[in-house]
TrEMBL record:
GO terms for cellular component: excinuclease repair complex. This is Transcription-repair coupling factor. Coiled coil: none annotated. Residues 141-229 form the UvrB interaction domain. InterPro entries: P-loop_NTPase, UvrB, UvrB_inter. GO terms for molecular function: ATP binding; ATP hydrolysis activity; DNA binding. PANTHER family: TRANSCRIPTION-REPAIR-COUPLING FACTOR, UVRABC SYSTEM PROTEIN B. Keywords: ATP-binding, Nucleotide-binding. Pfam families: UvrB_inter (PF17757). GO terms for biological process: nucleotide-excision repair. It comes from Sporolactobacillus inulinus. It comes from the Bacteria.
């Protein structure tokens, strides 16, 4: 029986063969015999050998979480991510988990900064509509001692990226501005951040306790604060959505002859249309995600060109292929259970 180190070396040799073929432009390669913990070891070795962003697509969130748990301890914690997405859109609308949202935002922040990582994502996550990558990058807030802050512009950005203004910050997704003190509670941090100004210049940055409001550790260097939601909505995005909804409604009404149905459609959409005209967020606005931006963006658009996508099951592969219409990947590796075959496409 092979020892762990021998087994691991054998897998590295197998992976090197796959990578050599990949670099030589081979269209298809077969891999078999992966089951249980062998998948985690194989993915770890592949990621370490390539040293580039790798995305693992699982059939569902349960399998994604299981694989994430298997990879913990094998991959650097700062490079291992789970992008949790529910299989049913209805369930995501019904249960908006702040914890799952924070994990997704953490992944998007990481990719927007062009950092490499190993990301596990359920197939359903590939279909989620997101803000354009350029807009996400522009919405990342960078704070550093000695730099200046334009409060009006900061207020506009914080509101657009999903933060709610409160008199006192007590929970994630909130911010407050009191004189020369700016408090922001990112979804991705354990504690909120307090920025103290001297005139318009940052004098100090530190974490603080949201319950006692007492300052904690001083933060050295640059602090990055990302969005508090996945839809980034500036005034121009509301305007675009309002015009789009008006157009879609007019087109739908034109095809109808039943006056009562027309009145019902007007009644159910008018309040939301008015909110869009007034640049006001509202519950359920995610259903208009296709109207906020001129181009539809999905997770794949956030990936670097050299990213490798690993599909853990053929079912996930079929769902992924059906949702991916924009561009081909640099490489796709389909990993199946022992006894099955797998392939890499380039």
């Amino acid at each position: 029986m092979l020892g762990l180190s021998q087994y691991y070396q054998q897998k590295i040799n197998e992976i090197q063969t796959v990578l050599d073929g990949y670099r030589q432009g081979m269209k298809q390669q077969l891999v078999s015999g992966l089951s249980g913990g062998a998948k985690a070891l194989w993915i770890t070795a592949l990621y370490e050998q390539r040293n580039q962003t790798t995305v693992v697509v699982t059939h569902n969130l349960f399998q994604g979480q299981k694989l994430y748990n298997d990879l913990e301890g094998l991959i650097d914690a700062e490079e291992l991510f789970l992008y949790p997405a529910n299989d049913l859109i209805a369930s995501e609308l019904a249960v908006a988990s702040p914890e799952l949202l924070a994990q997704r935002i953490d992944v998007l922040n990481h990719l927007a900064q062009k950092k490499k990582g190993l990301i596990i994502i359920p197939a359903a996550g590939l279909k989620k509509l997101l803000a354009p990558l350029y807009l996400w990058k522009a919405s990342l807030l960078h704070f550093e001692t000695g730099k200046t802050v334009q409060l009006d512009e900061l207020l506009r950005k914080l509101t657009a990226i999903g933060y709610e203004r409160e008199s006192m910050v007590t929970g994630p997704g909130q911010f407050s501005i009191r004189g020369g003190i700016i408090d922001i509670y990112p979804l991705t941090e354990e504690h909120p951040v307090r920025i103290e100004l001297f005139d318009d210049e940052i004098d100090s940055i530190r974490f603080f306790d949201s319950e006692t409001q007492r300052s904690l550790d001083m933060i050295r260097g640059t602090v990055l604060i990302g969005p508090a939601r996945e839809l980034l909505l500036y005034d121009e995005n509301f305007t675009t959505a309002a015009k789009g909804l008006e157009s879609e409604r007019a087109r739908a009404l034109k095809k109808m002859s039943d006056q009562k149905v027309k009145e019902l459609i007007n009644e159910h959409t008018e309040a939301e249309l008015e909110a869009l005209r007034q640049n006001q967020p509202f519950n359920g606005m995610i259903k208009y995600a296709t109207l906020f931006y001129s181009k539809q963006t999905t997770f794949h658009d956030y990936l670097p060109g050299d990213a490798l996508i690993i599909l853990m099951r053929s079912a996930a592969f079929r769902r992924w292929r059906s949702s991916w219409t924009m561009r081909k990947p640099n490489g796709v590796l389909i990993c199946c259970s022992a006894g099955s075959s797998s392939a890499i496409f380039h």
